[in-house]
C-alpha cells in the first residue's frame, strides 16, 4: 500500500524530471539527452527548459543546460526556517569536533529521514549521504528514532504505507521484528543501524523531541564498522550523542 497522491500534474512531473536529471549530471546536458531521460519529445523539453530558465532554476551553456545555484539558495532558506537547525548547529559542530566522527541532524519528511545538516569528522571517511538526501526510515538509526517518537496512530500509518525495502542482509523489514526494534528505541531513547542501509557502515542516533509542536528531530553519528564498534560505539559515542541532544533541547526551550 502506498500513501502517494493519486492525482498529479504530468507537466510538473516532467519539469521535475528534467531538473533532477540536471542536478544529478556531472556535466551540462543537451536537449536530446534530456528528452530520452524524461521520455518526452525534444520540443516539450525545450518548453520546460525555457520555463525553468525564466524562473532562474536552469542555466544555458552554449547548446547545453545545467541546474543553477538558485536551488542551493532555496534549500538553505528552507533549512534556516527550522528552529531545530538554528538551535542545534553549534552543538552538532562541537560533537563532530569532539569525536572526529560524522555527525548529522535529521528530520522526517513523510516516509523518509532527511539530513538537515551534516558535519564531517576529522577523518578520511566520507559519508555516503548529504544534506537533503532522502533515507529510509526503517533502515537508519535516525529513521528509527523518528518513527519511535511518533504517536501510535502515526506510527501505524507509516508502517502500513512505507515501503520496507531490503538493502543489506541485516535490514529489518518484517513488521513484527521492526515493531519490537522501535519499542526498544522508544524505551531506551537510542537507536542503532548496524549495516542495515549501507554495508560496513554503522550509526547511532537519539531523538530530539519537539518542544513547540513542530516535528521531532534526531541526531546521529555515523562511520565505518572498523572505526565505530565495541565500547567506543556502545558507550563513548552513545553517551556523547545523548548529552548533545540534551543540550539542543535546552537551547530549544531557552533553559
From TrEMBL:
<dbReference type="InterPro" id="IPR036390">
    <property type="entry name" value="WH_DNA-bd_sf"/>
</dbReference>
<dbReference type="GO" id="GO:0003700">
    <property type="term" value="F:DNA-binding transcription factor activity"/>
</dbReference>
<feature type="domain" description="IclR-ED">
    <location>
        <begin position="70"/>
        <end position="254"/>
    </location>
</feature>
<dbReference type="InterPro" id="IPR029016">
    <property type="entry name" value="GAF-like_dom_sf"/>
</dbReference>
<dbReference type="Pfam" id="PF01614">
    <property type="entry name" value="IclR_C"/>
</dbReference>
<dbReference type="Pfam" id="PF09339">
    <property type="entry name" value="HTH_IclR"/>
</dbReference>
<feature type="domain" description="HTH iclR-type">
    <location>
        <begin position="9"/>
        <end position="69"/>
    </location>
</feature>
<keyword id="KW-0614">Plasmid</keyword>
<keyword id="KW-0238">DNA-binding</keyword>
<dbReference type="InterPro" id="IPR014757">
    <property type="entry name" value="Tscrpt_reg_IclR_C"/>
</dbReference>
<dbReference type="InterPro" id="IPR050707">
    <property type="entry name" value="HTH_MetabolicPath_Reg"/>
</dbReference>
<dbReference type="GO" id="GO:0045892">
    <property type="term" value="P:negative regulation of DNA-templated transcription"/>
</dbReference>
<protein>
    <submittedName>
        <fullName>IclR family transcriptional regulator</fullName>
    </submittedName>
</protein>
<dbReference type="InterPro" id="IPR011991">
    <property type="entry name" value="ArsR-like_HTH"/>
</dbReference>
<dbReference type="GO" id="GO:0003677">
    <property type="term" value="F:DNA binding"/>
</dbReference>
<keyword id="KW-0805">Transcription regulation</keyword>
<dbReference type="InterPro" id="IPR036388">
    <property type="entry name" value="WH-like_DNA-bd_sf"/>
</dbReference>
<keyword id="KW-0804">Transcription</keyword>
<dbReference type="InterPro" id="IPR005471">
    <property type="entry name" value="Tscrpt_reg_IclR_N"/>
</dbReference>
Amino acid at each position: 500500500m502506498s500513501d502517494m497522491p493519486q492525482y498529479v500534474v504530468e507537466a510538473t512531473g516532467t519539469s521535475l524530471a528534467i531538473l533532477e536529471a540536471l542536478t544529478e549530471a556531472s556535466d551540462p546536458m543537451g536537449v536530446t539527452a534530456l528528452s530520452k531521460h524524461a521520455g518526452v519529445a525534444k520540443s516539450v523539453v525545450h518548453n520546460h527548459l525555457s520555463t525553468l530558465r525564466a524562473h532562474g532554476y536552469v542555466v544555458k551553456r552554449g547548446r547545453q543546460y545545467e541546474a543553477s545555484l538558485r536551488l542551493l539558495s532555496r534549500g538553505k532558506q528552507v533549512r534556516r526556517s527550522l528552529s531545530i537547525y538554528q538551535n542545534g548547529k553549534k552543538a552538532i559542530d562541537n560533537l563532530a569536533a569532539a569525536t572526529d566522527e560524522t555527525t548529522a541532524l535529521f528530520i522526517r519528511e513523510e516516509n523518509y529521514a532527511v539530513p538537515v545538516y551534516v558535519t564531517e569528522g576529522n577523518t578520511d571517511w566520507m559519508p555516503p549521504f548529504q544534506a537533503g538526501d532522502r533515507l529510509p526510515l526503517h533502515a537508519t538509526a535516525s529513521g528509527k528514532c523518528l518513527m519511535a517518537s511518533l504517536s501510535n496512530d502515526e506510527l501505524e500509518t507509516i508502517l502500513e504505507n512505507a515501503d520496507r525495502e531490503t538493502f543489506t542482509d541485516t535490514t529489518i523489514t518484517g513488521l513484527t521484528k521492526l515493531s519490537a526494534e522501535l519499542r526498544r528505541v522508544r524505551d531506551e531513547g537510542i537507536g542503532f543501524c548496524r549495516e542495515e542501509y549501507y554495508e560496513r557502515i554503522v550509526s547511532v542516533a537519539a531523538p530530539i523531541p519537539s518542544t513547540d509542536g513542530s516535528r521531532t528531530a534526531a541526531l546521529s553519528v555515523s562511520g565505518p564498522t572498523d572505526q565505530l564498534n565495541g565500547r567506543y560505539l556502545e558507550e563513548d559515542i552513545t553517551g556523547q550523542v545523548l548529552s548533545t541532544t540534551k543540550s539542543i533541547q535546552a537551547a530549544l526551550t531557552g533553559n
